[in-house]
Design a protein that fits this description.
This protein has two domains: 3-205, Alpha/Beta hydrolase fold, catalytic domain (Rossmann fold); 206-241, no CATH class. 35% of the residues lie in helices and 18% in strands. It contains eight helices and nine strands. The protein has helices at residues 3-18, 75-82, 130-147, 164-176, 188-194, 207-211, 214-219, 230-240, and strands at 24-25, 37-42, 45-50, 62-66, 85-87, 94-96, 106-110, 156-161, 195-201. The strands form two sheets. A seven-stranded mixed beta sheet has the order 1-2-3-7-4-8-9, with helices on both faces. Strands 5-6 form a two-stranded antiparallel sheet. Helix 3 (130-147) crosses helix 4 (164-176). The longest helix is centred in the middle third of the chain and has 18 residues, at 130-147. GO terms for molecular function: serine-type carboxypeptidase activity. Residues 1-20 form the signal peptide. It holds the Pfam family Peptidase_S10. It is an enzyme of class 3 (hydrolase).
Length: 241
């Protein structure tokens, strides 16, 4: 299946889930998945919330998923990586993902920063800072617990990939050390108690620190996995960068 066809299918699926961008509980499934799904916008950030497939609701941890970019919709992660439905390059339809993270957790996919995907952009300015992103996410989580109070006691994890190597630690730090604009939330203490960890996959954090170790890493890989010339070539590439 061609890349542009995949993107069209993805867009159509997302539009199907949004159903007018209003909050929708128990939205129609995409692939016959059994999880209850909720969509909507909180603090101007669009989200899709899938309840746990297997673990009872009051025991399932709540996982916030953030894709990178900057500007990549987290629904890409939902549809192509770890969500209940997967779209493959060999198919024009979505299939149930037997390895979905909803097997173990409630999953919340957020389009962020503002202006990404179906999240509304700021009206007062076009630029944004990572500190703004963190505050927006804290405001989203507070609003999420207002809407879904039964989940406020569940363990909380913040996960993401790629440029979420910036988003995830900034978000967690803002939850632990709330900026003044979100300091008075009734959920603040409970969130700190529930926050059990964060995770970053293939994260982009500090390019200068990461890329400086590529050659050394390659040189230490066991024989047979890389050609003998690979470490030297990687080092030349690093110097060139």
């Amino acid at each position: 299946m061609r890349t542009h066809e995949l993107m069209l299918w993805c867009l159509a699926s997302i539009c199907y889930l949004t159903q007018g961008h209003n909050a929708v509980d128990n939205a129609t499934s995409l692939c016959g998945e059994t999880e209850a799904v909720h969509t909507g916008s909180l603090n101007s950030l669009y989200y899709v919330f899938y309840e746990s497939r297997i673990v009872p609701s009051d025991h399932a941890p709540l996982v916030i998923w953030l894709s990178g970019g900057p500007g990549c919709s987290s629904l890409v992660g939902m549809l192509f990586e770890n969500g209940p439905c997967l779209v493959g390059e060999d198919s024009s339809t979505a299939k149930v993902n037997p390895s979905s993270w909803t097997n173990a957790a409630h999953m919340v996919y957020i389009d962020q920063p503002r202006g990404t995907g179906f999240s509304l952009p700021r009206q007062d300015r076009e630029d944004w800072y990572e500190s703004d992103v963190a505050v927006d996410l804290v405001g989203f989580l507070d609003a999420f617990y207002d809407k879904y109070p039964s989940l406020e006691a569940n363990n909380l994890f913040i996960f993401g990939e790629s440029y979420a190597g910036h988003y995830v630690p900034d978000f967690v730090y803002a939850l632990l050390h709330r900026p003044a604009s979100v300091a008075n939330s009734p959920h603040a203490n409970q969130i700190v108690n529930n926050l059990k960890g964060m995770g970053i996959g293939n994260g982009l954090t500090s390019p200068s620190a990461m890329f400086s170790t590529v050659g050394e890493f390659a040189a230490g890989i066991s024989k047979g996995q890389l050609t003998a010339a690979s470490p030297e070539e990687l080092q030349k590439c690093h110097i060139g960068i």
